[in-house]
Amino acid sequence: MKIAYVLNTYPMPSHSFIRRELRALERGGAQVLRLAMRRSALPLVDAQDREEEARTTYVLERGAGRLLAALAGRALRHPGRTWAALRLALRVGRASPLGRARHLIYLAEAAEVANRCEAAGVEHMHAHFGTNATTVAMLAHALGGPGYSFTTHGPEEFDAPAALSLGEKLDRATFSVAISQFGRSQLCRWAAFDTWDRIKVVHCGIEPGAFADPAPLPGGPLRLVTIGRFCEQKGQMLLIEALAKLRAAHPGLHLTLVGDGELRGALEQAVAAQGLGDAVTLTGWLDEAGVRRELTAAHGLILPSFAEGLPMVVMEAMAAARPVIATYIAGIPELVRPGETGWLVPAGDAGALAVAVAEMATTPVATLARMGQAGRTRVLARHDAEAEAAKLAGYIAAVVAAGPAAR
């Protein structure tokens, strides 16, 4: 099969799951054309991300003149389709806070995507996130390009489904994907009932080989790690509050925050204000090997998120045989089992978070190790990148084999 991946910003340090999925598809025999709208503004510290960047075509780098020429060319060759696509862009733009003008830009991007797909013999397009990349894929299909599918992750799509015209994207897609059963339930809220059978679940995957020989848990006082972009939805500020509550009873407790983002300055100020400078380390973004090193150095992962889909870092921690403390939201309870593989607490409750950390700190290392192994068994059975990519490839192959009627 020849597939185009239509993406907004690619690669991104926090989106390694897309790279894993894409490469697993290629190992399965698919040819994948990478079409991203723009490059990441963040430094790419992982060599694999830099390799992906070199293989990606960046649509906006074609320039406004060429994108408009692509749209004009589609209008000359396919006037009826172009008119229908223009009306679709204007209708979707009316519902969006980004407005119609932005959606006319998406239409020009879609013309370039449709042309690239046509030139490469692409049979199907797949987008990640139900935001502007899926808008471009939908418009490219309306312009005469191949059929499309897309993966939603949350929470962004679930926060603003009407503004994103999520229902229209779902109904026009050959199929759509959620990364958890919770995510699928949210898509069913916006899709027409007769399209529910086209909403699939394909988990984000990990590469078991990267976690082939998990290190034993370290000795000494409890060490926790949290991994993710420093932003409001991840709730890292709550960790500082919880840690301050525990400092007297657990003086050796240490927290490492891996990542970066707009809240870094606020987090650094909160750490200083609470006098936790020796108990908290901020590393910045790390490559995959660096993330695995931090997991190895920790007794467990802690994730205090307010909103999520199903976080990759939970899967990676479980694959590394580390128990997890996380919030009881979205798809997380589908993976983390309280008392078996970790702890689940209500989101936004610093007191409950502190209690869970205190319980982990007083749990014998042998018990934590058993929890970690139970989590490893569970995640490897549910989130193998090769198996999940094969599911996606099967869904794509089915619609390609069915021909234009299915698209």
From TrEMBL:
Keywords: Transferase. It comes from the Bacteria. InterPro entries: Glycosyltransferase_grp1 (IPR050194). One of its GO terms (molecular function) is glycosyltransferase activity. This is Colanic acid biosynthesis glycosyltransferase WcaL. It comes from Antarcticimicrobium sediminis.
